[in-house]
């Protein structure tokens, strides 16, 4: 399973990279705004900064919602750095753009996916990644993990190569359950990655080992 961090915060990206388990970064306009990154020039520089920190894929989202606009913006984003993956919303014009980019060898991440039908369409259009937002489904009393399961089944039925990028991850159990289902990638906050480290028995066990070692070496 690939681990992506879902943030535009450079310190958090560096911290996840330093842990040695980071495979990529996803961003969106809200995450950029949260870090105070506004204006096309600053946003573009921020994508480059992120690419210079991590080795893996970095999703950069288009703002246009028409086919021509998405193609223009997506081509410019893809030209910024080989690690850039163009993030396209699951709308009618977006499906056309996914197909265009797939035909032109530009990698894509289809975002804002909330149903199995949308995920099927994204795979048909040749998306590199599909991003079902499981946390936002959970927020409205709908089983987000069940959607990941459905998409896994459909993609396996037809051997679609589109990777399932479980997005809107909120906590460690989302990560673990997505891994059990077989999502190809998870993207979540740093806490959802570092939280996987925690177990009180590990802390108690280590304290005891260190205590016994120091007793034996007095
Ligand atoms: C995916 O790429 C999105 O950036 C993200 O996972 C959205 O998550 P949220 O529901 O926590 O905003």
Describe this structure in words.
It is built from 11 helices and 8 strands. It is of the alpha/beta class and 218 residues long. The chain has an 8-stranded parallel barrel with strand order 1-2-3-4-5-6-7-8, surrounded by 7 helices. Helix 4 (67-80) packs across helix 5, helix 6 (116-124) runs parallel beside helix 8 and helix 8 packs parallel to helix 9. Erythose-4-phosphate (E4P) binds at residues 6, 26, 28, 111, 131, 133, 135-136, 167-168, 187.
The helical percent reads 40-55%
User: Low-confidence stretches at least 5 residues in length (pLDDT < 50)?
Assistant: none
Most strands sheet: 8 strands, parallel, barrel
Give the tally of β-strands: 8
Distance between the termini: 45 Å
Please give the count of helices: 11
pLDDT averaged over residues: 97
SSE order in H/E notation? EHEHHEHEHEHEHHEHEHH
Radius of gyration: 19 Å
Bound ligands, each once: erythose-4-phosphate
As a percent range, the share of strand residues is 15-25%
Give the neighbour order of strands across the main sheet: 1-2-3-4-5-6-7-8
State the secondary-structure class.
Answer: alpha/beta
Please state the overall shape, judged from the principal axes of the Cα atoms: globular
């Amino acid at each position: 399973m690939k681990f992506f961090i879902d943030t535009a915060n450079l310190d958090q990206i560096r911290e996840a990279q330093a842990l040695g388990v980071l495979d990529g970064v996803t961003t969106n306009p809200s995450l950029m705004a949260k870090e105070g990154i506004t204006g096309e020039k600053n946003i573009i520089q921020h994508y480059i900064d992120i690419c210079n920190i991590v080795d893996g894929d970095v999703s950069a989202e288009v703002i246009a919602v028409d086919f021509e606009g998405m193609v223009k913006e997506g081509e410019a984003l893809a030209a910024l750095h080989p690690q850039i993956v163009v993030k396209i919303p699951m709308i009618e014009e977006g499906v056309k753009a996914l197909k265009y980019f797939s035909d032109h060898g530009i990698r894509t991440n289809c975002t804002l996916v909330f149903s199995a039908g949308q995920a099927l369409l994204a795979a048909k259009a040749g998306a590199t990644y599909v991003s079902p937002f499981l946390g936002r489904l959970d927020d409205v009393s709908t089983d987000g993990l069940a959607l990941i399961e459905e998409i896994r089944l459909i993609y396996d039925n037809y051997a679609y190569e589109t990777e399932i990028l479980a997005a809107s991850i909120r906590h460690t159990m989302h990560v673990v359950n997505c891994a059990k289902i077989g999502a190809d990638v998870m993207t979540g906050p740093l806490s959802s990655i570092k939280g996987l480290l925690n177990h009180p028995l590990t802390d108690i066990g280590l304290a005891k080992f260190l205590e016994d070692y120091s007793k034996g070496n007095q």
